Amino acid sequence: MAKLSQEDLLAQFEELTLIELSEFVKAFEEKFDVTAAAAVAVAGPAGAGPAAEAAEEQDEFDVVLTAAGDKKIQVIKVVRELTSLGLKEAKDLVDGAPKPVLEKVAKEAADKAAESLKAAGASVEVK
Predict the structure, then answer these.
(1) What's the DSSP call for residue 84?
(2) Residue 52, pLDDT above cutoff 80
(3) CA distance readout (Å), 35 to 30, 53, 55, 85, 106
(4) Cα separations (Å) of 58 from 20, 47, 127?
(5) For 68-97, what is the mean pLDDT?
(6) What share of the chain is helix, strand, coil (3-state, %, to 5)?
(7) For 92, phi and psi rounded to 5 degrees?
(8) Mean of the pLDDT values across residues 82-99?
C-alpha cells in the first residue's frame, strides 16, 4: 500500500459522515490500544480511575446533543448559556450533533441542562 500524505488522509476524512468517522475512531482506538480524548474545557476534580468508578454509583453524567431540531438558533443560545463557548463555537457544536455539551457534571446539572435544551427544541441524551 502506498503511503498517504497528511493532506490525502484529511481529504479522505472530509468525505466521511460523522457516523462513519466515529466508527473509524473507535476501530483505530481498538487496533492501536489508544484513546482519542476530546479537548473540552470543563473544570472538575480528577477521577480515581475506572476501577474505582465502576465500584461506586455513577455521580457524573454527560449531556449529549443528538439533534438540533427545527429551532436551531434557540438551541445555540441555550448551548452558549450552558457553556463558556462563543457564538461560532456553539454553532459548530450544534451543527456537528451528536456532540457532548457538558461532560462529567452532577445529575441535577445534567437534568437541568437537558430540560433547557429540550425546551429549545433539541434532542438530548444524558449518559
Answers:
(1) S
(2) no
(3) 9, 18, 22, 24, 24
(4) 29, 12, 10
(5) 85
(6) 50, 15, 35
(7) -65, -40
(8) 84
Find all residues with CB under 8 Å of 127, minimum gap 6, and list them: 61, 62, 64
For residues 109 and 114, give the distance between their C-alpha atoms in angstroms, rounded to a whole number: 8
State mean pLDDT over 2-27: 83
| Nearest-angstrom CA–CA distance, 102 and 120 | 16
| Lookup: cell for 127 | 449518559
- Cell, residue 3: 503511503
- Dist CA 112 CA 26 (whole Å): 30
Integer angstrom CA distances of residue 121 from 38, 62, 92, 111: 26, 19, 17, 15
Amino acid at 98: P
